[in-house]
Design goal:
Strand content: 15-25%
Order of helices and strands: EEEHEEHHEEEEHHEHEHEHEHEHEHEHE
Radius of gyration: 20 Å
Number of strands: 17
Helix content: 25-40%
Largest sheet: 7 strands, mixed
Number of domains: 2
CATH superfamily of the largest domain: Medium-chain alcohol dehydrogenases, catalytic domain
CATH topology of the largest domain: Quinone Oxidoreductase, Chain A, domain 1
Length: about 375
Amino acid sequence: MIRAEQNSMSSMQMTAALSHGPHSPFTLDTVEIDEPRADEILVRIVATGLCHTDLFTKSVLPERLGPCVFGHEGAGVVEAVGSSIDKVVPGDHVLLSYRSCGACRQCLSGHRAYCESSHALNSSGARTDGSTPIRRDGTPLRSAFFGQSSFAEYVITSADNTVVVDPAVDLTVAAPLGCGFQTGAGAVLNLLRPEPDSTVVVFGAGSVGFAALLAARAAGVSTLVAVDPVAQRRSLAEEFGAVTVDPTTEDAVEAVRAATDGGSTHSLDTTGIGAVIYQGIASLRARGTLAVVGLGASALEVNMADIMLNGKTIRGCIEGESEITTFIPELVELFTEGRFPIDRLVTRYAFSDINKAVEDQASGRVIKPVLVW
């Protein structure tokens, strides 16, 4: 629950993009943000990716909850730190990702993406004590989204979701490593772990799907397949060495089987669409694995005989099952080496053009919109 009364502390004004409900565009408004508490970090945002999760959450939160500040792929420069922070200092360039408690069974076993306090830390709309770091005219706004709410000039964040990077790294390219790019790459490198002689098939060639393809290519996987209805995206996938399938003109299951010598060993669904997930399962070869990384379908009809008799596996996967303090730097290194060319996926927009970025992403005109201050 969000507390109506906030702790008395200093604040400053800034601009943020507010969501007013499922059917309204974002609006830019002047709001107030707290100074960092003892265990918090104030970051000036340079760029932030626009992720499907932002738009999905916007679509399901009713207008009666009041304005919200989303954004969870922030990248920027540390402006100030609380008294107990020793991980970062003002001036550090940082990427922001998801929060985790570090103390539950999942965190202690190395699976922070499945933190038992994930909802409270990432999607409750407030700090864990019910307060919010952002207000408008003194009224609390739902914020602290993924511990950041980076659709704003500044964010309050924490040590557990802040990763320091070399100042030479282009933050307008690296920002989506906090979620979308690490989700696709991590699903391949951390969960599926394909061998070079295996196959990786991606259903949905958006930012997550392309990150998966690029990670599989970097891992030396011999056969890559991208299934997507958008011609421009298929063309780019072919430039990266993938065989492509247009599901609007051919049977996706048969086309994948033909491209992979009888079926895929490793597949990812990034769409969250039940019918597409079914295609992903059906096109696996015996003992193949489908990673489901797209948020969407709440129910799915499957052929259990096919799954049982062929030893197929369906695995959910969030945030690429990444340990951000080690995995994000690994992806940055791959990018700087030229082996993970995520710059080919990014289209930059002025922050004031956020609604244009939303439209272009929804239409498929761009792969990864990044908002730049």
